[in-house]
Amino acid sequence: MVILETRGLKKYYGEGESLVRALDGIDLKVEQGEFTAIVGTSGSGKSTLLHMLGGLDYPTEGKVLVDGKDISGLKEDALAIFRRRKIGFVFQSYNLVPVLNVYENIVFPVQLDGNDVDETYIDSIVKTLGLEGKINALPSQLSGGQQQRVAIARALAAKPAIILADEPTGNLDTGTSQDVLGLLKVTARKFEQTIVMITHNEEIAQMTDRIIRIEDGKIILGGNQA
Fold it and tell me: Do the strands 69-70 and 87-91 form a parallel or antiparallel pair, or are they unpaired?
């Protein structure tokens, strides 16, 4: 089943001679449960594409469909609610709330939406990511790898349709990066989670199910295969 799709997606900045085609007609399909890497050089458009997929910016033209819903035309309030319920984010900088402990950070998006926490599910995530002994710790008491594990757990907590990971290993050393990617892969399979990750690291990208290469705002490898 296709869980994420773009149709003729374009994002332009400026006009005339200064026009920049950050995305120039992206057609993409991602199947449910797929772990996909988007790779490209700096300025290729991969970060812009991730922002469009996550509803963090509006396209100039085209559509983004998440779980069958076209989010490209939603008003900001409706889009914010949709993001919170359907899209999990894992950022390079972790973005944990410093005054909340590990457990509180993980369940924060669920509680923000006014929903009951599925304790059994959260416990399974915590054990899968090896965070049992850190549940009461503050982010400042954790290593970078541990903080990123908490960020992954938080992204999973609301049972989103997709998880978008933006250079999730960018601040980690090689060994920790491979550990974190291994855990992402395990969680994707165990919880049947769809993950789209952007990375400049070719070795990390090779650990995913599928690689999409983007250059000059166009997909040059690994586009539609659904």
Answer: unpaired
List the chain pLDDT tens, one digit each, 226 residues.
999 999 999 999 998 889 999 999 999 999 999 999 999 988 899 999 999 999 999 999 999 999 999 999 899 999 999 998 899 999 888 899 999 999 999 999 899 888 899 999 999 999 999 999 999 999 999 999 999 999 999 999 989 999 999 988 888 888 888 888 888 888 888 888 999 999 988 888 998 999 999 999 999 988 764 4
Domain that holds residue 105: 33-58+74-209
Structural contact between residues 199 and 169, judged by C-beta atoms closer than 8 angstroms: yes
Q: Are 25 and 224 in contact (CB under 8 A)?
A: no
Domain count, the chain: 1
> Any alpha helices (H) in 87-224, and if so which ranges?
102-112, 119-128, 144-157, 174-190, 202-205
Residue 64 lies in a domain: no
For 46, the token pair is 């991969």
CATH of the domain at 133: 3.40.50.300
Cα torsion 19, 44, 58, 31: sign? positive
Q: Are strands 162-166 and 87-91 parallel, antiparallel or unpaired?
A: parallel
